[in-house]
Amino acid sequence: MNKKKLIWQIPFLALLIIGTVLIVMQQRSIPYQHDEGMVFGTVYNITYQYDSDLKQDIEAELQKVDNSLSPFNKGSIISKVNRNENPEVNDMFADVFTLAEEVSAQTGGAFDITVAPLVNMWGFGTKQFHRPDKESVDSLMKFVGFNKISLKNKHVVKQDPNIQLDCSGIAKGYGCDVVARFLRSKGIKNFMVEIGGEVVTSGNSEKRVPWKIGVTKPTDDSLQENQELQTVLNVTDKAMATSGNYRNFYVEGGKKFAHTIDPHTGYPVQHSLLSSTVLAHDCATADAYATSFMVLGIDKAKEVLKKHPELMAYFIYSDAKGNLQVWFSPSLKDKIVN
Length: 338
Hints:
Layout: H1 2-29, E1 32-39, E2 42-49, H2 55-69, H3 77-82, H4 91-106, H5 116-122, H6 134-141, E3 149-152, E4 155-158, H7 171-185, E5 191-195, E6 198-202, E7 212-216, E8 229-234, E9 239-244, E10 249-252, E11 255-258, E12 273-280, H8 283-296, H9 298-307, E13 312-318, E14 324-328
Antiparallel strand pairs: 1-2, 2-5, 3-4, 5-6, 6-9, 7-8, 9-12, 10-11, 12-13, 13-14
Helix pairs in contact: 2-7, 4-8, 7-8, 8-9
């Protein structure tokens, strides 16, 4: 009986093996597409395995994000909010607002999208850098704070009309998530979406191995010419975002002023943390926490990480002698390639 049963099972097993091989061969025959362009004032690079190019559709998705969150788009929802036109917000805006509010609460207000007036006054929003006096900073602090805004019935409610929003610390990550969601809706399993250094990966790369993402060494590089890597992370089915003060800064009177504004003080942060990389399930979350950690500094960032085991972080900081040092979440150890 066992022999007869085995004889009947062999054909089915053979068909299963042949079917699996055919599926694998078909999967390998599908080409990888490579799209790049400009969005949100930065460069995007998207690689995905699909039998046709989807660049036009991808850029349509990115335009939706721009129409919701870009302060440089005069017709965007956030621009209308900042002009006090009281627009009805869409789902994209509401998603980002809600997440920003959550991360703000989890980080003691380190992440705050109401810092727009301060960012602009210091010149980081306009690229016309200048150092304001204490009186000017203090005059704007009364318009900063997530507790001064809310979202009710699809409208942003402000305590003061001078409050303005800036989602630059989360928008690129959210844009990556939007594109990733679109690619998945097409049944695409192997892809990498990168916008200005924020990344979402899925499946395998064109080399049939997990995606490898580099973390740039934080050296003063306002022209963004340095591409030397501090490390490479073996990342797949994850989102990754990096925030740092080594590219967007200016020097006045021999003192360096970085672009990350502390919402509690109104001044650019001054501490040893140079680069904050965060891995999370979605890129908007990774982006927001990476920004938050640059405000908090390494010690306070570690305290937040203890409460959020779902996050992984890689910090590059300067020690007392000015040498670069590294700290990373223990759960990240197996993902470090070198």
